[in-house]
Amino acid sequence: MKAIMISGRTLAQGAGCECKMNPDFFKAVSICSLSEGDYKSLGLTDGKNVLVKNEFGQAVFFARADEGLPPGIIFIPMGPWANVLVGPDTGGCGPPQYKGVEVEVLPTDEPVLDVRELFAGIGRAKA
Amino acid sequence: MIIKGGIVYDPANGVFGDEMDICVENGRIVEDAKGEEIDARGLLVMPGGVDAHTHIAGKKVNTGRVMRPDDSRLGAEPKTAVCRPSTGYTVPNCYAMGYRYVRMGYTTAFEAATPIIEARHTHEELEEIPILDKGALTLFGNNWEVMECVRDKDLSKLAAYIAWGLRASRGYGVKVVNPGGGEAWGFGANVKGLHDPVPNFDVTPAEIIHGLAEANEMLRLPHSIHLHFNNTGKPGNYTTALETLELLKDIKPSRMRQVIHVAHMQFSAYGGTSWRDFESKAPVIADYFNQHNHATMDLGMLLFGSATTMTADAPLEYGNARLTHNKWSNHDIELEESSGVVPMVYFRKMLVNAVQWAIGLELALLTKDPWKVLMTTDHPNGSPFVNYPEVVSLLMSKPKRDAEMATLHEQLPKRTTLGSIERELDWSEIAVMTRAAPAKILGLGDKGHLGPGADADISVYNLRPEEVDASADHQLVKKALAVAKYTIKSGVLVSRDGEILATPDGRTFWVDASVPQADIDRLMIDLQEKFEKYYSIKLSNYMVQDAYVPNPVVIKAGSQDLRSEGVA
Amino acid sequence: MILEDVVCSFCGCLCDDLVAEVEEGKVKRIKRACRLGSSKMMGHGRIKAPMVRKDGELKEVSYQEAYDRAAEILLCAKKPLLYGWASTVCEAQKKGVLLAEEVAGVIDSTATVCHGPSVIGIEEKGLPGATLGQVKNRADMIVFWGCNPAEAHPRHALRYSSNVPGKFTPEGRAGRKVVVVDVRETRTAKNADKFVLIRPGSDYEVISALRMLVAGKGDFVPDEVGGIPKTVLASLADFLKSAKFGAVFFGLGITHSRGRYKNIDNALSLVAELNAHTKFVVMPMRGHYNVTGIGQVMAWETGFPMSVDFARGAAYFNPGETAACDLLARHDTDAALIIAADAASNFPRPTVEYLARIPVIQIDPYENPTTLLSEVVIPSAISGVEAEGTAYRMDGMALRMRKLVDTTYPSDEEILTNIIESVRRQRGTIGCTEA
Fold first, then answer.
1. Is C197 helix (H, G, I), strand (E, B) or coil?
2. Span B321-332, average pLDDT
3. Where are the beta strands (DSSP E) in B470-546?
4. How does pLDDT run across C161-190, given as a tens digit for each residue?
5. pLDDT for position B416
6. pLDDT tens digits, residue range B525-558?
7. Taking CB atoms and an 8 Å limit, are B125 and C300 in contact across chains?
8. In the predicted model, what is the mean pLDDT of chain B?
9. Contact flag C137-B124 (C-beta cutoff 8 Å)
């Protein structure tokens, strides 16, 4: 389904941001929240993942339902997983568009990458 | 070092254009010295300039910078081997602040207003200003503790609070801005006059001003209270000015100085009932200063062109913003003050601005005693300080004033007496207004003069006062004053022909006043309650720590006999 | 040992009432901190020693070797970027500006991906604001627009805004009205008196509509704006005007969305307009504990609050051109020093891909994805726990961060001082190889 992605802060993300190589951070920021209606209509259940993609890239996320979300809007905590979907254009003023990003969401059985796997493709990430 | 053969103006020591050598040793003026000789033969020599009222450091200055990248882009200068990069015109960065004052021959500048709770920020900026000696005046006109002490007529607790507040802010003196109005602005209101009670506090501005003046004298502070009148900037406000001055004429000063120093008198010398019939009341104000000896003023002269208004008079700034449809910053400070910042442009063809320009000059020329008048532009409210030479040349030259007036709004002569004033100030009077008087008014005994023991702050200008007719050749005056030939600070040659040669750190003057322990104990009960209930930070994190004032000059004062024990 | 009135070094709330229990040179317990603060202050796995990448692997080296290699990278770069700064103290930030001048580089802070648009909005309209204590003591209406303090500034409501009692607000939450405007119902929204659900990307139009309604020009407003019926907007406008003292707090919901700084520009105008009717103040919810500080330090030192390019020796400021993400997107920087920030995590992926191609120097206490890309890694002391210094709260209030425990790690200030020394020493003698 088509959706609008919002990325932003959460308590768990903030609490983990000084230990980003740690599994807790990974769990906190690789979750995609959907409205209850969207969660059901994609056939998602506990343990199922979603693939979110757009022109900039794609990534697999854990999925959960959030009753506060209107249909068509997904929320992903700020961090390297969300940023796979964010483009480099700053609109001529500095910040990329982290919120209001057009994406497509599909259910998937693919696993969520951990932090080292996520960065494996990039440059010199070998440490 | 010896500055040889200059034509020296040192009015505090009775020197009015005598040819003499000035000798320097270990950062002080001495009778005799050896060493490097600086050839100043025939050239104008004065003590280094002292600016007693300027906005150079702190939250509102920085807000001005942040909201005016347009201003920062002006005056951008790259770094040199000695200098950090400069930016700005009305709101220069800290480095430019120091370099540009020094290039003009100034060596001391005092930040006109800092709230106690934000003094840490003020000192961070003051520390980044190179070369100059400095200080900051601490705001007391709207603090809840002040108003409560005044309401309760508890003068000794008020004095204890001032002493404590100066220590907390490492401040130099008592600044009062639109007393009561800053608190009223907390809910968007203002006070209309001296006897208009402050909402929620049961005191009037008159009571606040009188109480602070009395406490100031109880504490024997080096400076008097420094007051920005209620109703500043409003047509017809000259009556508030006179009424306020009258309030204080029976207070005895504790030192050989004024009881009240008026900030930027120009902005409070207004007649008329609206901007339409706006006119100058400078003659009435000057007359009052001529008849009384308890008050001094700084001009707050307005010049045409760009300015940034910034003041603790937040309602005034809101008014400015609405009048000019301009961007507006406001900052209300819990339990203490409020403030605003609004960019301005002053136009020759705008009658109101032309009258304001004339008023500053009238005040200086009609007040007989130059020791009562400081030449300032309330930087950057009236104009940036780099334009001081323009003001001086206007004061010294009737032809220049006439030529200027001819370019202004044609109704101007009907609103001001400036056209009829013949007086032209001479170098002695200029030296008083820019050196000797500011030092005396502030109570800085080692500044503003060149007697033995004084700080070796000296300015030498590329102008021969015995040969130049300052009236006819006013362009030479302006040019010479804009770039000093030599500026010496604490005995170090820091600038030559506009080139900064060295950037030693300046020192920060602050006043440590002592009061009886019993008064402090009573005060702390109030303050502990305020910190517990109302402030958003803790008392233990409030006071400015030593780390922020690494080069202090601490002046002692106090209500106690200074020789006695039990000093807090 | 119990240390009181400790200042927290996590978010822009800069709470200064924490209590730390220190034993055997470690912080054993933190009281009063929220989850974010205690996670920071308690500390955990650190980078053990400086490292330099040799043959593709990070190898431990001495601090001096790390400083020299960092200096070499910066000297050999044509246009180095010095980025981050938001989670360190002003004393270090000042060194950063000096270093940027020394190497003719660009200095930029995390503000450019956060509240940079707010700064630009302030440049357009000014900031009608106040200190947080004014809100505590006077505000009877709080508006949270595009921010979620329940998750990002957990003690804000308790100490400064909706829940705290003050002099003219003795009833605390009971005496206040809370309005939340957001694209989703957040935890903050669940505690609001009024929650306004807005369509993503339509803040600008909604703010414009409110401005017109507040100014009595409601006839021009269409029946629906941003997914919100005009009747709701009209009643919201009246509601705002009914406040005795309103405080608007806004966050990344409007700085990151379509419109960016124009949303802030408009919001600032709305607050200015409200001041014609009643008293209103506005404040950006700054995320990091000293992002306000780097903006202040840069403004008083360089004239501009962020994105300053010293390539020509004088400060040049043009966000959209000189901000970190712009430079990286245009491939217009050839080395980066990243301090007190994690660019690899927080920049868009394509931007990070370019960052991975240039030499990166990291100064940080903790390992994070930026470490994976770094050429030089320099572990530092934790400001506010192991190193003292100045920080500025979201309302501009300056506080001094304490040192609670000793450490062998150098502070950010020391590290930068040493890099500057190495730059000065090596300048003119260094032979730079082509990348």
1. strand
2. 95
3. 486-489, 492-496, 499-500, 508-514
4. 999 999 999 999 999 999 999 999 999 999
5. 98
6. 999 999 999 999 999 999 999 999 999 999 999 9
7. yes
8. 97
9. no
Domains annotated for chain C, with CATH where assigned, are 46-114+289-426 (3.40.50.740), 116-284 (3.40.228.10)
ipTM over 0.95: yes
Radius of gyration of chain C, Cα coordinates, nearest whole angstrom: 23
pLDDT in the model for residue A124: 60
Supply B294's token pair: 């308890």
φ/ψ region of B156 (left if φ > 0, alpha if ψ in -120 to 50, else beta) reads: alpha
Q: Looking at CA atoms only, how far is residue C306 from chain B in angstroms?
A: 10
Residue A50 in any domain: the answer is yes
Question: What range defines the domain where residue A90 resides?
Answer: 2-120
d(CA C6, CA B554): 29
Domain membership flag for residue A126 = no
List C-alpha distances in Å: C164 to A14, B107, C135, C170, C174. Answer: 24, 47, 9, 8, 10
Give residue A123's pLDDT.
Answer: 66
Q: Say how many CB pairs under 8 Å bridge A and C.
A: 194
Q: Which residues of A touch C197 (CB under 8 A)?
A: 70
Q: What is the pLDDT of residue B84?
A: 98
| Touch between A and B (at least 3 CB pairs under 8 Å) | no
- Name which of C36, C356, C366 is nearest A122 (Cβ-Cβ): C356
**Assigned domain for A127 exists:** no
List C-alpha distances in Å: B69 to A79, B89, C317: 32, 11, 8
Distance (Å, rounded) from C-alpha A12 to C-alpha C123?
34
Chain A residue closest in CA terms to C198: A70
Q: Cβ–Cβ of B342/C126 closer than 8 Å?
A: yes
Lowest mean pLDDT among B48-52, B368-372, C34-38, C185-189: C34-38
In A28-78, which ranges are E strands?
31-34, 49-54, 57-65, 73-77
State what percent of residues in chain B have pLDDT above 90: 98
For C350, name the nearest residue in chain A, comparing CA atoms only.
Answer: A88
- Give the global pTM: 0.97
Instruction: Check if the beta carbon of residue B352 is closer than 8 Å to that of residue B416.
Output: no
- Chain A residue whose CA is closest to C39: A15
Residue A24 confidence (pLDDT)? 84
Distance between B497 CA and the closest CA of chain C, angstroms = 22
Q: Are strands C376-378 and C51-54 parallel, antiparallel or unpaired?
A: antiparallel
| CA–CA distances in Å: residue B538 to residues A9, B554, C88 | 28, 26, 22
What sign does the dihedral C252-C255-C259-C264 (CA atoms) show?
A: positive
Q: What is the CATH number of the domain that holds A83?
A: 2.40.40.20
- Helices C412-426 and C90-102, packing angle to 10 deg: 20
Task: Look at residues C328, C149, C166, C134 and name the one whose alpha carbon lies nearest to residue C253.
Answer: C149
Distance CA B143, CA C434 (A): 62
Question: Average pLDDT for residues B223-239, to the nearest whole number?
Answer: 98
Query: Each residue of C287-339: pLDDT tens digit?
Result: 999 999 999 999 999 999 999 999 999 999 999 999 999 999 999 999 999 99
pLDDT given at position B561: 54
Chains C and A, touching by 3 or more CB pairs within 8 angstroms: yes
Cα separation of C367 and C381, whole Å? 13
pLDDT attached to residue C40: 85
Q: Do chains B and C touch (3 or more CB pairs under 8 A)?
A: yes
pLDDT, one tens digit per residue, over B445-473 is 999 999 999 999 999 999 999 999 999 99
Query: Which residue out of C180, C349, C370 would a mutagenesis test of the A interface target, given it has the greatest number of A Cβ atoms within 10 Å?
Result: C349
Q: C303 vs B188: CB contact, 8 Å cut-off?
A: no
Count of structural domains, chain A: 1
Please indicate, yes or no, if residue A125 is contained in any of the structural domains. Answer: no
For C269, name the nearest residue in chain B, comparing CA atoms only. Answer: B327
